[in-house]
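User: Please check token order:
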Amino acid sequence: MRQATVLQALLALAALAALAALATTLSGGAALAAQAPPALVARAPGAAPAPPASGQPAPVKQAPAMPATPATAPDRAFTEGQRALAAGDLPAALGQMEAALAADPDNLRYASEYRHAAIRAAAYDRALDYFEKLVASHPDSAFAWLNYGYVYVDKMPVAGAITQVILANDALEKFSRSIELKPSWIGLYTRGNSYLYWPKVFARGPLAVADLERAVAVSKSEPKRAYQAHAYAALGEGYWRTDQPEKARATWQEGARLFPGDAVLKALLSRQGDELEAYIADQVDRTKRVDTDLHELWEEK
């Protein structure tokens, strides 16, 4: 979700160069237009815990088989996981949170905090293995699929340029499955805003606009929540990137009327021309870890 407190207009030059070289090798350059660049998710609410500055901990090993947790146990398991996390016992924290998710796979809080514990533990592969098992056991759990996609995004900062492309495409596939199951505000916002991270040459702007228009429409049918402002900001950016500046400003103005305290909408409306272009580019800077913390979604309830 947008960094208002979890995805520059061009991909890091090294990544683009690598993609171009790969596409040229495979198909004489014709494949480049079809090759998907990193499809990062939206700038998520809250600050994602960063991995240790010096020396990553040894990755926590592969997730165990899906535990058979009683339906009444998820809150207890999650609480134990939080306690273990606070004590620095990352393997125990992950195990308890996995047990909670096994019993309540669509719980956004369990999934978001589990993923961020996995970031702290550098346990990206364990989290990917776990969510693969989770959606296999619960194939109709839309938010399990959504968080499965987020894990790919969480892993991207530690991956190479070509691997980032693969991770990004995998994330987009999971986001799409989530939307197929349940066209939620968070699912539509996440996929729509992810398209804003693609270089403009790939013409993903219309796809971003389509998803974000749907996200705004969903928000109008639900109780008003402060996080809904993110979709207005992102939709305006989609219009801006598709050369519709009047619609962009009108969308930001509408959002600001509904959410007068939103800092990003204020910043967008206070800028013009090159200054606005630079600000929008900074919102989708691929050199930064994408914040995928979803705490706004449950803290406002």
